[in-house]
Amino acid sequence: MTTVKPPNPLNIGTELFRFRRFKASSLLLNFPSRSLSCKATMSSAISSHVRRMVESFDPSIPLQEAATPPSCWYTEPSFLDVELERVFYRGWQAVGYAEQIDNPKEYFTGRLGSVEFVVCRDATGKLHAYHNVCRHHASLLASGCGKKSCFVCPYHGWTYGLDGTLLKATRSAGLRDFNVNEFGLIPINVASWGPFILINLDKDTVPDQKGVSSEALGNEWLGRNSSQILGGSSIIGFNSSLKHVRRRQYTIECNWKVYCDNYLDGGYHVPYAHGGLASALNLDSYSITNFDKVSIQSCESTPAVGGGFHRLGSKALYAFVYPNFMINRYGPWLDTNLVLPLTHRKCLVTFDYFLEDSLKDDEDFIERSLEESERVQIEDIALCEGVQKGLESPAYCTGRYAPTVEKAMHHFHSLLHHSLIGG
């Protein structure tokens, strides 16, 4: 299947920040912007310097002739600022999995760029997401995950219901022109798709109380024909028998795109960096298919020697969902990798491991499998941190693609360019 042109981006002149005016003080509040100017627009948000950096990569050049993006995409702090505004603060972003909030009153928190958020289910089981910020003096409300009947600010005790309403404003006697209905938590669009929880920080999208259909959500997040790509009976094959068994997190000293590039090199690095993994895969069978916003790499595995331990099953499938989410299916396992930028040269990668229900009590199999996975991750971390140091060297500016294997990487760079340049 050939690559399809990504959807039209938002107009470059669209206002960057949405402000809400309160009658009492004419105070302007903005989310998620860090700017205090209500005049800021998209056209002013990207400087000529950053625009030149973006335009230095040309996605229209054929892969066989194309150069990779310049090193400044990975080393300039100002480049990450624009990525946050134009990539991560727009459209649907994966932030968690459904088992985290299976039951009423359960919640989890997270951070995306400068946006602190909390996702929860209220007492009726309805799904909500909010900016995790008290409306009094900006303290964070909740941390980690768990179960609560309400959110109580640890700073001054302001209390909010799980539906976002302000239930109690301590010591508010004497306040003038104060309406508690105007001081509820700021909502964020949230939805579930399959086993995943998604949020949408787009300031031009008003949170929809009725929700969005699964088909519409899938097509917006994944592109056209989403159900065929990642649906229940799809290539990846989600099913209800998969249960979450472990979470591991890695803070890596590299730009978030370095980690994505490493994932998307078509197995190029596997025989050189992952000897154990390479011996379990038939790399000659490696295939790559690009869709709208998804790239799927697949590879057949080799039989276990002497009937020994083998966690991969008959085939390994690696799905990359633009811009930063990976879904890996092999044997009885499914794991996800969520890559979040922390700074221009540091990212957080969260691994969530799911296992077929019939094996969830097989501790020996689980530990041996996770030990093998951990070994691969440590090897990848060393590679990515080495690449970041090389990108920061004056000796390197751009590189080239290996045309037979790095198609998915080029697709990722092309999608990113489209998001950043404003089409």
Automatic annotation (TrEMBL):
Keywords annotated in UniProt: 2Fe-2S, Iron, Iron-sulfur, Metal-binding, Oxidoreductase, Transit peptide
Transmembrane regions: none
Pathway in which this enzyme or protein is active: Amine and polyamine biosynthesis; betaine biosynthesis via choline pathway; betaine aldehyde from choline (monooxygenase route): step 1/1
GO cellular component, one term: chloroplast stroma
Any Pfam family matching the protein: Ring_hydroxyl_A
Cofactor: Fe cation; [2Fe-2S] cluster
Molecular functions (GO terms): 2 iron, 2 sulfur cluster binding; choline monooxygenase activity; iron ion binding
Catalytic activity: choline + 2 reduced [2Fe-2S]-[ferredoxin] + O2 + 2 H(+) = betaine aldehyde hydrate + 2 oxidized [2Fe-2S]-[ferredoxin] + H2O
Superkingdom of origin: Eukaryota
Matching InterPro entries: Rieske_2Fe-2S (IPR017941), Rieske_2Fe-2S_sf (IPR036922), Ring_hydroxy_dOase_asu_C_dom (IPR015879), Rng_hydr_dOase-A (IPR001663)
EC numbers: 1.14.15.7
Keyword DNA repair in annotation: no
Stretches assigned to the Rieske domain: 92-199
Family per similarity comment: Belongs to the choline monooxygenase family.
Role description: Catalyzes the first step of the osmoprotectant glycine betaine synthesis.
Protein name: Choline monooxygenase, chloroplastic
Organism: Aristolochia fimbriata (White veined hardy Dutchman's pipe vine)
